[in-house]
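User: Show me a protein chain along with its predicted structure.
Assistant: Here is one chain, sequence first, then structure tokens.
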Amino acid sequence: MSKQVRIAVIGDQFVGTELFIDCLRRDLESVTGAVAVDAMHVPWPDTPLQHNAEIKEFVGDPAAVARLAHDADVLLTHVAPVTQAVIDAAPRLRIIGCCRGGPVNINVAAATARGIPVVNAPARNSQAVVEFTIGLILAECRGIARAHAALSQGVWRGDLYRYDRTGRELRGQTIGLVGFGAIAQMLVPYLAPFGLHMLTYDPFVDAARCAALGVTQVELPALLAQADIVSLHARVTPQTTGMMGAAQFAQMKAGAYFINTARGPLVDYNALYEALRSGHLGGAGIDCFPEEPPPAGWPLLSLPNVTVTPHIAGSSQNSAERGPEQVVRDVANFFAGRPFEFCANAAALAARK
């Protein structure tokens, strides 16, 4: 009889250990037989994400993770730190599962050097981000958040009915999608019933794909000049970091709205503050920040024409459930000798040979 597979599971207050364990019982035991699970919990999101020189966006003590993973064949997590030291401390480790799109809390290079595949869960929260983006657009363009904030404090903002302070309907306006990957493409059928004209800028997406979805592909300056709403959906790369700065905000139409449910590093927030403070931009809806949480007294938070949320666009019970489902399926694929659906380091497979 083969040796029992040991699984180290590290959950948190979003992706709980029970979600992993339910998937293991359902999808892995049929392949490997009974598994032994050792579990622990880290206090995210109540404790903000941390960063160091080795990994990013993690919560937890690497030493505690190393102790848990010491005898593990499989390590499953969401935001716990998996450093070089953790990997070195786990001589039996064969596969790591991280239920996020980008496993930035994992030292993937160290795993690859050991021939350990890292399976992940891209697009597990795409639907949540799509729906949230629609909500943020409506909240900002129609002043919903401002009206709520005032009335919850006992202030009746009847002035929001004034012609010069009320918003415009979405129908007939132009929205520009900066970046046209999976989430932006999923947005299209949700935006279409509003009667919006849709533009996109993404040099890596074929124009035929854009046309098939009814979206006009243009260069970034043309998009900024024409769009009444600019919604950001690009990935963070050295080329896109700070891609929305003073020059780009100046190119946007007077009174236009800016929406960011992508990532904070894409934006020069000092430039955005000036564009909003001056009245050049009508407003902004922001879910992502350069520092999270933003520091007390951060100027952008004081502006009346901004709707802010604490990086929760991707949070839904459904997306919390999808992450473990996707990575456990690939752990089962690993033990069954089947191809992976998603693997962040295909080179690890070659290193095993």
